[in-house]
Design brief:
It is a single chain. The chain has 4 helices and 5 strands; from the N terminus they run E-E-E-H-E-H-E-H-H. It has 141 residues and is of the alpha/beta class. It has one domain: Nucleotidyltransferase, domain 5 (2-Layer Sandwich), CATH 3.30.420.140. The chain has a 5-stranded mixed β-sheet, sandwiched between helices. The model has no long low-confidence stretch (mean pLDDT 90).
Length: 141
């Protein structure tokens, strides 16, 4: 039985979303969901639609660690978001170290000739792709 996995790059203003193919080999970008974490808007309405559409067996959330492997406030926020996702959607959540993925995404877009103002639109979903792809590569199914 094959199923998809969603990848999320959770920030304070956006959540980048990616999805695996059915074989769990490659990750593709879906979209960036605008959120307002301070106001309690976590983008769950849109996430519910994506869960209904893709029917993932699991959701992988990027875990922003410090370079010394410690977890700080952003990692705590990602784990909190994951707990809320599990509680609300009854979907298994796993975490993937996301150190340097935003910088990798930025480099990919720069190398691809994407203009600075257009990079902002794509960086979060590309970071979500990198998070999910790293997860898939390290968890051969």
């Amino acid at each position: 039985m094959f199923s998809r996995i969603l990848g999320l790059d959770v920030g304070t203003k956006t959540v980048g979303v990616s999805v695996s193919d059915l074989l769990g080999v490659t990750a593709q970008p879906i979209e960036t969901i605008k959120i307002d974490s301070e106001a309690g808007d976590l983008g769950f309405e849109r996430l519910a639609e994506l869960i209904k559409e893709y029917k993932p067996s699991k959701i992988v959330i990027g875990l922003p660690k410090h370079m010394n492997n410690d977890e700080g406030i952003r990692a705590e926020a990602s784990r909190d978001y994951g707990a809320k996702v599990t509680e609300r959607f009854s979907v298994e959540v796993d975490y993937q170290d996301e150190r340097l993925t935003t910088m990798q995404a930025e480099r990919v877009l720069i190398d691809g000739g994407v203009r600075r103002k257009d990079r902002k639109k794509s960086i979060d979903k590309l970071a979500a792709v990198l998070i999910l792809q790293n997860y898939l590569d390290s968890h051969k199914f």
